[in-house]
Amino acid sequence: MLPDLQSHEDRRGIHIDQVGVSNVRYPLTLPLRAGGEFNTVANLSMTVSLPHYLKGTHMSRFMIALNERKHQFRPDTVHMVLKELLDLLEAEEAFVDMEFPIFLARKAPVSREQGLIDFNFVFRSMSSTSGTNDKNVGVKANVTTLCPCSKEISARGAHNQRSEITIDVRPASDEFVWFEDLIDIAERNASCELYPILKRSDEKAVTERAYDNPRFVEDMVRDIGKDLLGLLHAGKILWLYVASRNFESIHNHDAFARIERGVRGPLLNPREGVDVAITA
Amino acid sequence: MLPDLQSHEDRRGIHIDQVGVSNVRYPLTLPLRAGGEFNTVANLSMTVSLPHYLKGTHMSRFMIALNERKHQFRPDTVHMVLKELLDLLEAEEAFVDMEFPIFLARKAPVSREQGLIDFNFVFRSMSSTSGTNDKNVGVKANVTTLCPCSKEISARGAHNQRSEITIDVRPASDEFVWFEDLIDIAERNASCELYPILKRSDEKAVTERAYDNPRFVEDMVRDIGKDLLGLLHAGKILWLYVASRNFESIHNHDAFARIERGVRGPLLNPREGVDVAITA
Amino acid sequence: MLPDLQSHEDRRGIHIDQVGVSNVRYPLTLPLRAGGEFNTVANLSMTVSLPHYLKGTHMSRFMIALNERKHQFRPDTVHMVLKELLDLLEAEEAFVDMEFPIFLARKAPVSREQGLIDFNFVFRSMSSTSGTNDKNVGVKANVTTLCPCSKEISARGAHNQRSEITIDVRPASDEFVWFEDLIDIAERNASCELYPILKRSDEKAVTERAYDNPRFVEDMVRDIGKDLLGLLHAGKILWLYVASRNFESIHNHDAFARIERGVRGPLLNPREGVDVAITA
Amino acid sequence: MLPDLQSHEDRRGIHIDQVGVSNVRYPLTLPLRAGGEFNTVANLSMTVSLPHYLKGTHMSRFMIALNERKHQFRPDTVHMVLKELLDLLEAEEAFVDMEFPIFLARKAPVSREQGLIDFNFVFRSMSSTSGTNDKNVGVKANVTTLCPCSKEISARGAHNQRSEITIDVRPASDEFVWFEDLIDIAERNASCELYPILKRSDEKAVTERAYDNPRFVEDMVRDIGKDLLGLLHAGKILWLYVASRNFESIHNHDAFARIERGVRGPLLNPREGVDVAITA
To answer: What SS3 state is found at C139?
Structure first.
């Protein structure tokens, strides 16, 4: 029988907030709001809290849980994975984070030529043995932004660029937020959405639409923020974060803005009441 | 006279937490604890809050401030930059973030052959017109970790790897924390520190030192955490975060652990009391 | 009818070697040597040559081809995509490059606990209307390397680390090279292969195996090179490249070695005989 | 006396093209065409060839050479570093590669407000004991491109974006090519150059200039190629490569084009006449 150092007693008196595996690459299949599923590749982390009296966690159990429950690594079923981690690792808190690209079918605005457009999805979740649960749902969606100032002051044209919109929300405990909902909010507030395929008639349409809908980086976070505040006030979400990063076509640096509102949950707050036995 | 859209009134009633420029690359010169200076290249962001009644900020003023006050982009003088941004942009809050590599001279343990070893430094700062100030100081320091379990159970050898230690602290308002202090704390708790130059006599020394000092990812954050808690209890810092990411030599994923203690300042907390005029 | 600038005549007399779309993210399904398939997400580029007398190519046609022929984006059928691009874009040469993660089932050496291990696959291909075809097949496979010098000179232990092995080959025209074949060659010449799941009995096995099989970065490229030279001499491949990048656990920089042998094909050589009409 | 495994005889009969250190981060000071110097941080690799009869190279000697000759890591003096590596490591061929950001002062077009604009420089060099020398000099310069098709077909506006121009050249043996020369060529052929600081009057100027100078990705490589072909035909350079990557503001993928002309030198060609003693 090989010794099990990790199960030894630890006397430093320091509780560990999170310990586990990260940067795990894994293929997943996920549901779409419109029905059906899509295949993707996720970057995962799985961690647990470790009480001050234990020397280490058992890393292999995370990867075994992943292999056995891979079909549950999705927003609506990850609570079963969290429960499994709490049990397997005898932990008070368990955490699963996932990031992966999303692929949605999209038709060009005029020609209706269809392709796939990609976004990034971020999902964070935690459960504790005392019954606390928390989730954060987010997307990174690229869009077109066209500068209102450049349009206003110039005799012709206006600078525009690809911008990355980040939206993160904390759904209320019995609410489900599709990543498609967040993408919709990002895109409908942009100068124009992006397309995988644009024929000439489509390119004319998106060029003119962007020119007709100029948006500062400030407008992006305010208009998206306004839609998200609607969800907040309706009790569907408890917290929101929105940022826009514009890869300015006239500069070599980015324009950036962010807004945060509502109440962060245990996922984003430091752990309360941790018993720190240490005497410095 | 060209129109100034940014100065127009905004009626959406949404205060913007931060707006400005990011991903700005700029050469800086910084002081060393041991005396003297070093040259580096930073990635910078400079932002301000924007009241709900203004449409936009004036992006060019950030870059003008950078160009005029480049010698003040260092931890001990950045408050002058923040004050300048508050004035120039008529803002209630201003933020400057900086990331750059640090280069320290390091002698090999036996041969004393000297080279430069590099780390990453992260510095975040804010000031408000109401007198609030906050700073976070952090490093990313790579070290060697050697697995205690692998050593204990194996007849010979033990797996070891490069690990990335992240330390972030919030210095008390009248305290200064050198990045070298944080690097010292990361390195003295590792299985071994890294070196730019190792001759054979040195390689023997570091191999044996690592073998004699095995450290789990849990040990890394506990031992570093213990040293940082010493600073917390002494009132030198108000908050601490430490994480270790081990690029496991036996896996294709990483082992990860983190600890956070103390009180986050305004830099990391959502802005309180924001006047949201919106009616959803 | 919208004007079609791209079809206009160009008078600069400069043939373009490659023009098209790149950084296209797309989900693909690919076959495994052992039978069955796996789902992944690829980064793609699709380009064609453009004769000196044409102003531009038609970018939307690449994305239409991708959407219509997505099932043919695999090493054994991509020639049909290339033919389609030659036709659609009236080009002399067409190119398709793909990079994606591969997932293989892998059992731990002692416990036989099974998980998925990931590698990166790179595939480059071209066809011309004159009948030239060329392919390059490559993998990036991470492995464990343990330093022979460190082992030899130290009283105990030996530094080891994760290393990234790059293998690229040019299969002979009627030969097929599985990416699994290249992974096998990388792994069997390493100090040890990596595993997704290792229980204590497995960790003992891989620690000792690595210690018993020390490999310099030079050994990695020579031993892998030797196996690949076997394929070259047998006429299965026409060209080989192998590199090892060791993320040294005792340094903050990498050790690197590379070997190249055989005859590069048109994919890697500058285009011959391009008609340059320009008078400087 | 510690054993020196690296100096042992190797019997696999496989010459190694390059072995050494890579991903070395180091602060450098470099000259500017306009006079004066600038400070930057480089990513370096230093390698040598290894004859088939030697087991390994001596890695510490690269880093010692870097530390002792850091002032010679610049395009006009790196031949002294190469000579040192040939001597120190008793090698037939030595290679030094460097990548670093360049910072140039730039005034806004109307307001003349001055800031720093950044580019990336790539420098590759080799020398052999038989007298072969080769250098490649390159830049990555970001610019604005505005789409001619979008402008032509749209009633108003035109999509534009940040584009990354890559230029690499092989200077003739007694010619010196400043990186500023390559940046000039990239920028003067773009729709517009980028600026660190733009006030409203400047923003009007660059918006209109870009609108008045539309450029396809094909135009970028042809017009830059034409300027570089001028250097080629004048005998100042022996080889050229130019690529444009447009981060399309209407798509989530990039448009890409490349041109290569002239004769690659030993740096880019596989090593000729390598004695492969292996019998497969």
So the answer is: strand
Averaged pLDDT in 10-residue chunks for chain A of 280 residues: 88 95 97 96 97 95 97 96 96 96 97 98 96 96 98 97 97 94 98 98 98 98 98 97 97 97 87 38
Q: Are A46 and A53 in contact (CB under 8 A)?
A: no
Alpha helices in A213-269 (DSSP H): 217-233
Residues in contact with B228: Cβ distance below 8 Å, sequence separation at least 6, in sequence order:
B167, B169, B185, B237, B240, B242, B261
Q: Name the residue among D82, B205, D48, B207 with its Cα closest to residue C255.
A: D48
Percentage of the residues of chain C whose pLDDT score is greater than 90: 92
Q: Does B152 touch chain C (CB under 8 A)?
A: no
Q: Does A155 touch chain D (CB under 8 A)?
A: yes
Q: What is the DSSP code (8-state) at residue B83?
A: H
Cβ B193 vs Cβ B187: under 8 Å:
yes
CB-CB under 8 Å, C45 with D16:
no
Q: How far is A75 from chain B (nearest CA, A)?
A: 23
Q: With respect to residue B2, please indicate whether it lies within any of the assigned structural domains.
A: no
Nearest to D168 by CA among D184, D185, D189, D182: D182
Q: How far apart are CA D160 and CA D211, in angstroms?
A: 9
Torsions phi, psi for A156 (to 5 deg): -160, 145
Residues written for chain B? 280
Identify whether B1 is part of a domain: no
Supply the range of the domain harboring residue B187: 8-279
- Tens digits of per-residue pLDDT, B138-194? 999 999 999 999 999 999 999 999 999 999 999 999 899 999 999 999 999 999 999
Beta strands in C32-79 (DSSP E): 37-50
The overall average pLDDT reported for chain B is 94
Enter the DSSP assignment of A81: H
Whether residue B41 lies within 8 A of chain D, CB to CB, comes out as yes
Do C72 and C78 touch, CB atoms closer than 8 A?
Answer: yes
Under 8 Å between Cβ of D210 and D189: no
Q: Check: pTM over 0.90? Answer yes or no.
A: yes
- The model's pLDDT over C74-102, given as tens digits with 9 standing for 90+, comes to 999 999 999 999 999 999 999 999 999 99
If one counts the domains in chain A, the total is 1
Tokens encoding D73:
């890591």
Closest listed residue to residue A105, CA positions, set A30, A38, A169: A38
Is residue D1 included in any domain, yes or no? Answer: no
User: Domain for residue D2, yes or no?
Assistant: no
Name beta bridge partners: C38.
Answer: C30
Distance CA A182, CA C233 (A): 56
- Given a cut of 50, whether residue D276 has pLDDT beyond it is no
Amino acid occupying residue C156: R
% residues pLDDT > 70 (chain C):
96
* CATH label of the domain that carries residue D27: 3.10.270.10
Closest CA to B78 of B64, B95, B103: B95
Nearest-neighbour CA in chain A from C225: distance (Å): 28
Q: CA-nearest residue of chain A to D214?
A: A157
Please say whether the beta carbons of A215 and A148 come within 8 A: yes
Interface list for B 165-204 with A (CB within 8 A): none
* Residues 6 or more apart in contact with residue C42 via CB below 8 angstroms: C25, C26, C27, C28, C73, C98, C99, C100
User: Per-residue pLDDT for D117 more than 60?
Assistant: yes
Eight-class DSSP state of A8: S
Backbone angles phi, psi at C11, to 5 degrees: -115, 10
How many Cβ pairs within 8 Å bridge chains C and D?
170
Look up the ipTM and state it.
0.93
Which residues of chain C does D56 touch, with a Cβ-Cβ cutoff of 8 Å? 149, 216, 218
Residue ranges of alpha helices (H) inside B111-254 are 148-153, 179-188, 200-212, 217-233
CA atoms within 13 A on the CB side of C133: 15
